[in-house]
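Homework help thread (please don't just give me the answer)

Our assignment gives two proteins as sequence + structure token strings and asks us to describe the second one. The first is just a warm-up. Here they are:
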Amino acid sequence: MELNVNDKKFMIMELNKNVTRDDRPYLRFVLSDVANKLTKAIMFDSNKLHFEPDKGNIVAIAGIIQNYNGQFQLKINKMDKLDDINYYDFLPKSVFDKESMFNELVSLLHKNISDQYMEKLVALFLEDSKAVDLFKVSPAAKSIHHAYVSGLLEHTLSVVRLAIDICKYYKELINKDILVVGSLFHDIGKIFELDISKGFDYTDSGKLLGHLILGIDLVNGYMHKIPNFPIELKNLIGHMIASHHGLLEYGSPEIPKTNEALILHYIDDMDSKINNFKTVFERDGVSKGWSSYDRILERQLFKHISAKEMS
């Protein structure tokens, strides 16, 4: 069964160039429409295009949806680049309002940080309009978890909430200011690592340095502006950013060596995994029962009835 597509608008999320056995150039795409539905597509004789396609381009496409090797694929016959179209409309977004999330985060920070140096550090970040604007819209990842507009803010707010709750239980063993500030900044480098205008593509600095180094560099810049900022606090916050992936093989240059760093690693990983589960269930349309096998999580997932449904 074939379905015609006529002048439908998409954003190019992924793009790969290749040639056929008889040296005909072709392109493979992953496209996103305004409903944020992803479509795999292919275009032969791509050298006949009148523009050079790139990630982030908004295009109008005519073609045919075909069944290829058991999967649906859009075979593109015509593609035109569209200008003056808001790329934001083609990107997946958090279901939560970004301003509401940000206001809650700011309120939690003000209520739970008492150290004067930490207060000044957070204040400098909140006064940095460029960083804050990026923070409000950045995804937390390209594809793994919270991979949507404002995903980084949503994830950070969750981690800060969890940090505050854990402080109530381990209050004699941890420094609340350090844990809360480390939770705020643990992924802050992602505002420079990912570019949403390119369909969540990595920036040059993201590829060359990664968000851990970018985050430490940003936070150190704020610290340098605060007279007599304690070197121990600088090292402890930097260590939390550097070690929050938990293991060297997961990209951390250090493993957690303080109580606060250890807690941050586990609550960050937990919030990420819970979001992974949610994404898999939504992807597979599972309301109850088993998902398909997920390659990243390396397992099938089971969704049971909620406590509310049981009562």
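The one we have to describe:
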Amino acid sequence: IHWGAFLRADLRDEPGDPRRGGLYEFRWTSFYDRDSHLFDFRRYEVDLRHFLPSFRERDTIAVRAHTILSQKRSGQQVPFFLQPTAGGGGDLRGYNQYRFRDENALVLNLEYRWRVREILQAVGLADAGRVFHRPSQIGLAGLRGSAGAGGRIKLGERILLGADLGWSPDGLHLWFRAAHSF
């Protein structure tokens, strides 16, 4: 059984393709194991996204900080299928999907969204993240990084098709999308 609550402030100028403002969210969820009582824990998630116009009015700098923290009592566990992950097209684009998994995660993203034409947008990206076992281990030490570039074909403010190519020590990874990663 699980339940929770969230607080969200959406101050973006355009939700589908923001150029200014931010989306700030805090989530709290409690999980209770009805059968064995080994998997009782709380999850706290903070997702902060901010969008700034660059020196060129049509371009955007997008930044994101996202963390998921799990709180459990002694003897309790977070089941593997509910553990947060890092890696893939939504966060660390230079790594395979679900490459890193543990009870807590931290991901930082930076994008420069350059509007080449009205229907074409180029993106430069940098990602960093890590997973860790205890919430007290949160920090920037040990971050895994990736960098890359992408492109978006747009119709007005809507993205019809996009692709990101991310690089990391694990190699190159190509991700297709129909929206921004954040």
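TA reply:
I won't write it for you, but here's a hint about the kind of observation we're looking for: The CA atoms of residues 69 and 104 lie 5 Å apart.
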